[in-house]
């Protein structure tokens, strides 16, 4: 199989998170009772007409810019004509030869185009015997279709592309990109050819991949199937394949309908979509810092390593929280460590998200300051942090009230040392006799006695000095 | 004032009446005036069947913008009128509910597709009716029935609630007994509608003020292509007589040319069926209208649509599907749109050369006998003088200019885009002759 | 370009219309007669027409993302051919393994 290489292009459909549908004011809420989110327009009643949602345009432009595309000043909607019960008009309003945007790049993969279109409804086949149930709530929800160049050469690369795509779209907040809820859907075009060959082989379309790992497995399965065909001298038939996640195999879609003749023509109900340079620039300027740029900046500005960066950049609010904390505390490294450790653990335990976390960046910075200046030990800091979460009080105030500040006062330390000596005469005697490695043990006992408050450095000094 | 349905007896022009119809407001420029609505315009209280079995009995759960505007002006929405099925026809013989008859001579067609609306006005059932235009479907029946028929500039009047036939051509039009009534009704229904993305954001002037414009300020073009050698000599004579009288009244008459006019019918009969084939795909028996069950989904679609659509609609859907299909799109649909641009340019050129309006016959013949025209293409030729204005989007009006062998004929005035004022001014002048 | 019997069968299928075999010859004849008139367009010189027909058009207006849903004057069930539990029902698709588009 290493004689052959996989050639993959991905078509990703993304639902835009508008409040209303692409061409009417029906709500886009997920999970509503069947057909309540419909109106004469998305039901395709006689005489109804589409009017495009301005916010859908804005989100589509934002996504296209974030993917490095050129957004075109004029784009045209077109009708894609076919019959299906969840396609009320008998055509889908989409874009054909004048799409919104072309020519982008993501994760080393070229992006051919990004265009706007409307979603179809849902057909549910096994709810009633002998019938298919149609729910048109989803019909008319605005989508962008992102078509990649056939640049992908492995299933892992496909997965990376999809993960990066998801992250970028989350960053620019245009979609929930949730494959489980259907706001991100993936179809693949797959072909195989001998390594080194430049001509493309016949491609098949692979559908019904519902997770990223499903995509990976499906691509590998289809590639293997095609290679097996080619190796035995056969020819790959152009057809649609469906991924069966349960069985772990691809098989041809049973439908043998004539290959679709969509009879595209410009949508006469919608004049051209014209976007001024000023409009596009304004959206470009308002784009948040995208993941790659943020990673580079974190590396340079804060001196963080790849592992740290990955964890902090994954989530926009987390990254923002980190930056605020780093700035307030003046120490990016400790901020990063504390966040990756204690804070993420607390979030996981509490089940909340960082935006509603009770300890805000400035407060965390105060705690980190206390640790940094040696006023509290790391152990004490953890205790203080827990109390900060529970009570919302400041670190300093808690440290004082609970007596968690490190004690460096010799009198107090000598008191605790004395108690340890009294309680551990054997060990003390051995230490006095010269077993210096017992110093650590004794320091530990002093720390325990002092409930973590003793300044371990000073205790060491006192013990070494022969108290 | 009540609609006089007795006058419709035997003519099969009314498909539904609303006996409880009354004004929605107690004032307004059309207060208490009964208006007839063509059956392809959505009304809440009567069916909108579009003259088709596939929508027989279907009552729209929302109302067309033009109907809302009429009601807001105090009008009474009295009845729905008969029409060629889905507006495809020039005689109202293609209605699933039987042909309509011309009140002037009930053995003859009233024209189409807004035959019922034109006849309702001509018979005196109502003073004003709404129709729809795609290739001449208001002006041609107006000419056949001896009433005024107006098609506005494309985009002047909202299409929201007008069941689409050919979306880039369709417009709601007005039928009335006088130019003044038609100007009033047009005034009320015209104007931007946020529910229609093709509706123009241009203010609506006071159309009736055009009555005061002196005819001496008009330069009227006589396009030679609309007066071909083969034109019925009686019609030619009437039209030239009108032009001569306009000249006597002070207008300037000029010979002009719209060289691509002869291509209008082929262009129209590619573009309109193409768009129609797509617009009529929604009639699938799934969510409303007729459903004929079959063995499986495809059988249901085919049985429903074959039973629900008549022969002319079927023919046009097939034609439209063909000209859009793979391999034929460039040669037919795309080429037709390009030639359409040439037709539009012809009007621009003439109107930019100092001509205010054009005057032509509305139809090549007066109303023909029911059943007389069976060849589809021959029927299409009824639109030969009217469909250029639809293709180019220009406003046009047909005004009665007398009779030929006792049958009414119309004179057509075509104006520049959003030049309804000049159009009405010329129409008032012709009416006054 | 002449339309054949198979062409008409194919486009009828695309358009979800069933044309009986008895009707087919007449229909093919009618369509060919109409299309013959369209041949005039082949000879027209359109070199003067701008390549981008959209360039001269007034751009589309957009609408705000919100506002009230357009209401139906009466429930969907009242004019639907077959609804159950809020769903539109159609005969079960023979190719039910086909994926939602």
Describe the structure.
The complex is a heterotrimer of chains A (467), B (433) and C (101). Chain A has 467 residues and is α+β, with helices and mostly antiparallel strands. Chain A has three domains: 4-283, no CATH class; 291-401, no CATH class; 410-464, Orthogonal Bundle (Arc Repressor Mutant, subunit A), CATH 1.10.10.410. Chain A has helices at 54-66, 155-171, 212-231, 277-285, 291-302, 306-313, 316-329, 332-350, 361-372, 378-391, 395-401, 410-423, 425-432, 438-449, 456-464, and strands at 4-15, 70-71, 74-75, 77-81, 91-95, 101-106, 109-118, 122-128, 131-135, 142-148, 184-194, 204-209, 240-244, 249-252, 265-266, 273-274. The longest helix of chain A has 20 residues, at 212-231. Chain A is elongated and about 95 Å long. Chain B has 433 residues and is an alpha/beta fold. Chain B has an eleven-stranded mixed sheet with strand order 1-3-2-4-6-5-10-11-9-7-8, sandwiched between helices. In chain C, strand 1 and strand 2 form a beta hairpin. Chain C is flat and about 55 Å long. Chain C has 101 residues and is an alpha+beta fold. Chains B and C meet through helix 6, helix 7, helix 8, helix 9 and helix 10 of B and helix 1, helix 2 and strand 2 of C.
Spell out the blueprint of helices and strands.
The complex is a heterotrimer of chains A (467), B (433) and C (101).
Chain A: E1 4-15, H1 54-66, E2 70-71, E3 74-75, E4 77-81, E5 91-95, E6 101-106, E7 109-118, E8 122-128, E9 131-135, E10 142-148, H2 155-171, E11 184-194, E12 204-209, H3 212-231, E13 240-244, E14 249-252, E15 265-266, E16 273-274, H4 277-285, H5 291-302, H6 306-313, H7 316-329, H8 332-350, H9 361-372, H10 378-391, H11 395-401, H12 410-423, H13 425-432, H14 438-449, H15 456-464
Helix pairs in contact in A: 2-3, 5-6, 7-8, 7-9, 9-10, 12-14, 12-15, 14-15
Chain B: E1 14-17, E2 34-38, H1 65-72, E3 76-81, H2 115-123, E4 128-133, H3 139-145, E5 148-151, E6 171-176, H4 179-189, E7 219-223, H5 233-248, E8 252-256, H6 264-279, H7 297-308, H8 311-324, H9 330-351, E9 357-361, H10 376-380, H11 387-392, E10 396-404, E11 407-414, H12 420-432
Parallel strand pairs in B: 2-3, 2-4, 7-8, 7-9
Antiparallel strand pairs in B: 1-3, 4-6, 5-6, 5-10, 9-11, 10-11
Chain C: H1 5-14, H2 24-38, E1 83-84, E2 87-91
């Amino acid at each position: 199989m290493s004689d052959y290489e996989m050639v993959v292009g991905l078509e990703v459909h993304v639902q835009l998170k508008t409040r209303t549908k692409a061409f009417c004011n029906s709500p886009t809420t997920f999970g509503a009772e069947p057909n309540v989110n419909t109106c004469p327009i998305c039901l395709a009643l006689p005489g109804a007409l589409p009017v495009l949602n301005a916010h859908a345009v804005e989100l589509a432009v934002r996504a296209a810019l974030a993917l490095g595309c050129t957004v075109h000043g004029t784009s045209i909607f077109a009708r894609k004509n076919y019959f299906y019960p969840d396609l009320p008009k008998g055509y889908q309003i989409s874009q054909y030869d004048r799409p919104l945007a072309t020519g982008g790049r993501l994760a080393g993969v070229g992006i051919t185009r990004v265009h706007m279109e409307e979603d179809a409804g849902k057909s549910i086949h096994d709810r009633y015997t002998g019938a298919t149930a149609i729910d048109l709530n989803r019909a008319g929800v605005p989508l962008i279709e992102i078509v990649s160049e056939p640049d992908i050469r492995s299933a892992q690369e496909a997965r990376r592309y999809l993960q990066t795509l998801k992250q970028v779209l989350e960053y620019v907040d245009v979609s929930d990109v949730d494959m489980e809820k259907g706001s991100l859907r993936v179809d693949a075009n797959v072909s195989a050819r001998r390594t080194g060959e430049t001509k493309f082989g016949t491609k098949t379309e692979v559908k019904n991949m519902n997770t990223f790992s499903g995509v990976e497995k499906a691509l590998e399965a289809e590639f293997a199937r095609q290679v097996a065909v080619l190796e035995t001298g056969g020819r790959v038939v152009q057809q649609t394949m469906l991924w069966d996640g349960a069985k772990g195999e691809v098989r041809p879609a049973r439908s043998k309908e004539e290959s679709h003749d969509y009879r595209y023509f410009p949508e006469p109900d919608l004049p051209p979509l014209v976007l001024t340079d000023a409009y596009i620039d304004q959206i470009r300027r308002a784009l948040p810092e995208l993941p790659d740029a943020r990673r580079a900046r974190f590396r340079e500005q804060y001196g963080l390593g790849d592992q740290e960066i990955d964890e902090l950049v994954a989530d926009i609010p987390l990254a923002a929280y980190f930056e605020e904390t780093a700035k307030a505390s003046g120490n990016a490294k400790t901020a990063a460590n504390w966040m990756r450790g204690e804070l993420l653990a607390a979030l996981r335990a509490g089940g909340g998200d960082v935006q509603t976390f009770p300890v805000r960046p400035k407060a965390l910075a105060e705690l980190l300051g206390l640790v940094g200046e040696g006023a509290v030990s790391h152990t004490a800091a953890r205790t203080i942090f827990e109390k900060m979460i529970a009570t919302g009080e400041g670190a300093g105030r808690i440290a004082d009230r609970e007596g968690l500040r490190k004690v460096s006062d010799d009198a107090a330390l000598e008191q605790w040392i004395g108690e340890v000596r009294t309680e551990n005469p054997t060990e003390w005697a051995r230490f006095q006799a010269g077993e210096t490695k017992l110093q650590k043990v004794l320091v530990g006992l002093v720390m325990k006695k002092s409930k973590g408050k003793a300044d371990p450095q000073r205790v060491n000094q006192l013990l070494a000095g022969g108290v | 004032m009540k609609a006089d349905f007795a006058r419709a007896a035997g003519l099969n022009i009314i498909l539904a009446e609303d006996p409880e119809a009354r004004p929605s407001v107690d004032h307004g420029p059309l207060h208490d005036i009964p208006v007839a609505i063509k059956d392809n315009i959505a009304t809440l209280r009567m069916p909108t069947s579009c003259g088709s079995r596939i929508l027989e009995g279907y009552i729209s759960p929302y109302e067309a913008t033009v109907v809302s505007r009429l009601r807001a002006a105090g009008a009474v929405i009295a009845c729905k009128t008969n029409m060629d099925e889905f507006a495809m026809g020039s005689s109202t013989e293609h209605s699933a509910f039987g042909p309509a008859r011309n009140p002037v001579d009930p053995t003859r067609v009233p024209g189409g597709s807004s035959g019922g609306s034109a006849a309702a006005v001509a018979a005196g059932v109502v003073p004003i009716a709404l129709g729809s235009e795609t290739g001449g479907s208001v002006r041609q029946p107006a000419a056949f029935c001896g009433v005024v028929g107006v098609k506005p500039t494309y985009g002047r009047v909202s299409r929201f609630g007008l069941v689409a036939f050919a979306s880039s051509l369709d417009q709601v039009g007005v039928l009335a007994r006088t130019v003044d009534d038609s100007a009033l009704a047009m005034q009320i229904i015209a104007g931007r509608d946020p529910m229609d993305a093709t509706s123009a954001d241009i203010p609506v002037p006071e159309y009736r003020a055009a009555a005061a414009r002196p005819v001496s300020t008009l330069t009227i073009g006589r396009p030679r292509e609309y007066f071909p050698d083969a034109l019925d000599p009686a019609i030619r004579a009437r039209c030239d007589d009108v032009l001569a009288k306009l000249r006597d009244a002070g207008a300037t008459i000029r010979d002009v040319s719209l060289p691509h006019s002869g291509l209008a019918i082929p262009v129209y009969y590619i573009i309109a069926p193409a768009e129609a084939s797509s617009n009529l795909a929604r009639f699938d028996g799934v969510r409303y209208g007729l459903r004929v069950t079959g063995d499986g989904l495809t059988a249901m679609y085919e049985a429903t649509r074959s039973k629900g659509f008549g022969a002319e609609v079927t023919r046009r859907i097939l034609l439209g599907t063909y000209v859009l299909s793979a391999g034929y799109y460039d040669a037919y649909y795309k080429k037709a749109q390009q030639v359409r641009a040439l037709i539009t340019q012809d009007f621009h050129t003439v109107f930019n050369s100092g001509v205010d309006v054009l005057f032509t016959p509305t139809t090549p013949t007066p109303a023909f006998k029911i059943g007389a025209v069976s060849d589809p293409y021959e029927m299409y030729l009824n639109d030969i003088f009217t469909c250029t204005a639809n293709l180019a989007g220009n406003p046009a009006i047909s005004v009665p200019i007398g009779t030929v062998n006792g049958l009414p004929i119309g004179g057509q005035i075509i104006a520049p885009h959003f030049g309804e004022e000049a159009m009405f001014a010329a129409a008032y002048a012709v009416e006054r002759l | 370009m002449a339309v054949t019997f198979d062409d008409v069968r194919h486009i009828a299928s695309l358009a979800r219309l069933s044309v009986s075999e008895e009707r087919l010859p007449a229909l093919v004849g009618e369509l060919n007669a109409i299309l013959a008139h369209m041949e005039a367009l082949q000879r027209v010189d359109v070199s003067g027409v701008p390549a981008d027909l959209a360039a001269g058009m007034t751009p589309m207006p957009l609408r705000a993302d919100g506002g009230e849903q357009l209401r139906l004057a009466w429930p969907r069930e009242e004019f639907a051919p077959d609804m159950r539990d809020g769903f539109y029902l159609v005969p079960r698709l023979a190719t039910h393994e086909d994926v939602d588009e």
